[in-house]
């Protein structure tokens, strides 16, 4: 058996490197696609929870919904609640991919009544800051969202 020349071994090595890069890029692409699907699923699930707790948000435009979310969620009170949940291990601080089950072993989303109860924990004082300078949500009740009675 003839021994390969240095040039032939270099060419083979280069070919192996290119094939490995292709495999790597394919796996990376599959991973990114999987992460994107998990993110989209998570966003859809959370959107469903919001709409089931506060059905009126379904009628809002994208811009109105964004403003609503900013005014409701960007408050010191909400940040304290989120920090408490993160400290308890109820919600991950960063997405982990996979099946996105909560870390406490409970694989169910909060029930709409629980989400509504949490949403009704409004702060007793008005939030401060540039993002909240308009005051309230424009519904005349000081920014508090109330569920319609059925």
What would you say about this model in short?
By secondary structure, the chain is an all-alpha fold.
Give the arrangement of secondary structure elements.
Layout: H1 6-53, H2 62-73, H3 76-88, H4 112-119
Describe the structure.
This protein is mainly alpha-helical and about 150 residues long. Among the domains are: about 5-55; about 60-90, no CATH class. It is about 55% helix and about 0% strand. The chain is built from 4 helices and no strands. The chain has helices at about 5-55, 60-75, 75-90, 110-120. The N and C termini lie far apart (about 85 Å). Residues about 95-150 have low confidence and may be disordered.
Top keywords for this entry?
single chain, 150 residues, mainly alpha, 4 helices, 0% strand
């Amino acid at each position: 058996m003839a021994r390969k020349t240095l040039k032939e071994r270099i060419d083979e090595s280069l070919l192996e490197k290119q094939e490995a890069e292709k495999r790597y890029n394919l796996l990376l692409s599959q991973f990114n696609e999987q992460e994107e699907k998990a993110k989209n699923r998570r966003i859809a699930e959370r959107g469903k929870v919001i709409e089931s707790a506060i059905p009126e948000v379904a009628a809002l435009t994208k811009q109105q919904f964004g403003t609503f979310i900013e005014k409701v969620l960007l408050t010191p009170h909400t940040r304290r609640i989120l920090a408490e949940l993160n400290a308890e291990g109820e919600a991950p601080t960063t997405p982990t991919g996979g099946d996105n089950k909560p870390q406490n072993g409970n694989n169910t989303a909060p029930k709409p009544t629980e989400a509504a109860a949490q949403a009704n924990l409004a702060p007793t004082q008005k939030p401060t800051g540039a993002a909240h300078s308009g005051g309230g949500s424009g519904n005349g009740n000081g920014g508090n969202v109330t569920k319609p009675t059925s």
